[in-house]
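Our consortium's second objective concerns turning raw sequence data into structural hypotheses that experimental partners can test. To show how far this objective has progressed, the report includes one record in full. It was chosen at random from the queue rather than selected for favorable results. The single chain below, 137 residues long, was entered without modification.
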Amino acid sequence: MKTLLTFCLALVLAVPAFAQAPTPADGQWRGRSDGGQCNAPLDYELTIDSGIVDGSAYDTSARGPVPNPKKTAPPSPTPGLWQIHGLAKPGSFSLLAVASVRATDRREGRLTASLQGNTLTVTESGGCGRVARLTKG
């Protein structure tokens, strides 16, 4: 019993040692991208906590399927919501963006983010090539 108690006490004392230290990028980041080649700007909302990035980007102009009176193949709807995940590092770091779409249509992209002062710049590598400048707040 004494050994179990000692083990539990050691575990409780060790937990803070495994926690990551806060980074300068920690906080809530918001901003809007340019339209890029697709002319579809995204509104970004990212949260960085101890270097872990989680958030989303959404296109307010994205629309779903519309009626097709010409009986031709309808264009696929553009993704309106992107989930963004990654790890913030000093300098430039990579993020993964996955589109919220239905069925087997899986879309994902890579983003490059860099912190310069009080601005987090997020650049799409491929796709529309949008660039967003996010501010903390």
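The partners drew two points from this record. The beta strands are 27-32, 43-49, 52-58, 81-87, 92-99, 108-116, 119-125, 131-136. DSSP finds one helix and eight strands in the chain. Both points have been shared with the crystallography group to help prioritize constructs.
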